[in-house]
Design goal:
- This protein has 360 residues and is an alpha+beta fold.
- It has 8 helices and 16 strands.
- It folds into 3 domains: 8-205, Deoxyribonuclease I, Chain A (4-Layer Sandwich); 209-273, no CATH class; 274-360.
- Strands 4, 5, 6, 7, 8, 9 and 12 form a 7-stranded mixed sheet that branches. Strands 1-3-2 form a 3-stranded antiparallel sheet, with no helix packed on it.
- The two termini are 48 Å apart.
- 20% of the residues are buried.
């Protein structure tokens, strides 16, 4: 590889095993992470993953997420860049003979774990063996899974041409949680296999959001009685009649989550990085009480509940004004004799006034 080579390069179906040393398949200037097919896959030979990354990069191998089963093979790498959150790259192979539901479940579990424990950018690439161009059940399930996780599949070109039937498909994917960071994606014809290379170019500059985003279920507006009624009204007979506990558990999970998706869908939320300096625990508790009373009054439409909500809302507004007044009064008094501190306090006051006048 030359100086114009990619920062990261992932290969699936390497067919490597313990008889092949890393030195035999390593390129100058790159480090290698391998995940050869193991006995857990219940398959003889074949499979295997290899992920190359330039030795100048600060990377960690996320071994806890590496898997090799009859339904999925994957390995995961964390990339650390200056002034960014952790960037995770997953290399994934979906065996054609594997169970698609178990493949999707594994991807979903790993991505949700990464989001909740590491709050990272997630990118996944590889031979998924699900044709997103074809209207079929497994493709729909797969794309619904990506939507639930807030991920976007960026490859739209043909990536595979069958030698026997000349059938074309898009089964090699690149998926990301931050599509705005990738300004170029596509495929490269190389002739070594019937698969095309998939590539994605990431912007060097990190797109900084005013607020940090996190992904979760919208429980705030969930109508719990309706959700319970919906669950009770659903027929669970096919769960009870299954003798295989894994299939029964998976069937229950799919049906239950489909109900949950209806009443509390996943969405992105914004959270402020820093609180305003005048915000206190009392103010936060009062705000939570106001939100709860608003929820109750909306559900019941009772005049008494509406009056109680307005009373609490007015208390929050009054408390906010008083806390701001006390904070700036104290800041200015403490800054007497120190022009630098005084100007800083006045600048903060002016900023908050401007934000109040122009929320855009």
């Amino acid at each position: 590889m030359d100086t114009g080579s990619p920062e990261l390069l992932g290969l699936s179906e390497t067919w490597l095993n313990s008889s092949v040393d890393d030195e035999q398949v390593t390129f100058d200037g790159y480090n290698l992470i391998r995940a050869d097919r193991t006995a857990e896959s219940h398959k003889k030979g074949g499979g295997g993953l290899a992920l190359y990354y330039k030795d100048k990069l600060d990377c960690i191998y996320l071994t806890e997420y590496t898997m090799c089963t009859p339904d999925i093979e994957c390995l995961w790498l964390g990339l650390k860049l200056v002034n960014t959150r952790l960037i995770v790259y997953g290399l994934v192979y979906g065996p054609p003979s594997g169970n698609v539901d178990k493949f999707i479940e594994a991807i979903e579990d790993i991505c949700f774990s990464l989001r909740s424990q590491r709050n990272c950018e997630i990118n996944v690439g590889g031979d998924i063996n699900i044709n997103v161009k074809k209207r079929e059940l497994k493709s729909r399930k797969y794309q619904e899974c990506l939507k639930r996780m807030g991920l976007t599949q960026l490859i739209t070109d043909i990536t595979h041409v069958s030698d026997s039937s000349l059938m074309v498909s898009t089964i090699d994917h690149f998926i990301t949680s931050d599509r705005e960071l990738y300004n170029k994606v596509g495929t490269i014809v190389h002739g070594a296999t019937d698969h095309m290379l998939v590539f994605a170019t990431r912007k060097k500059e990190y797109v900084k959001h005013d607020n940090e985003r996190y992904h979760g279920r919208a429980y705030g507006k969930m109508d719990i009685p309706k959700f319970i009624y919906d669950v009770i009204s659903t027929s669970w007979d096919n769960v009870y009649t299954l003798t295989d506990p894994d299939r029964a558990c998976n069937t229950f999970k799919v049906k239950f989550i489909s109900k949950l998706d209806t009443h509390a869908p996943y969405k992105f939320f914004n959270s402020r990085k820093d609180r305003q300096p005048w915000v206190t625990t009392e103010f936060l508790e009062c705000g939570n009480e106001r939100d709860e009373k608003l929820k109750i009054s909306t559900q019941t439409n009772d005049p008494v509940d509406k009056r109680e909500y307005k009373r609490t809302r007015n208390r929050v507004v009054a408390l906010k004004r008083e806390l701001k007044r006390l904070f700036f009064q104290t800041s200015i008094q403490e800054s007497r004799g120190d022009s630098k501190k005084l100007w800083k306090a006045l600048k903060l006051k002016l900023t908050i006034i401007l934000l109040t006048l122009d929320p855009n």
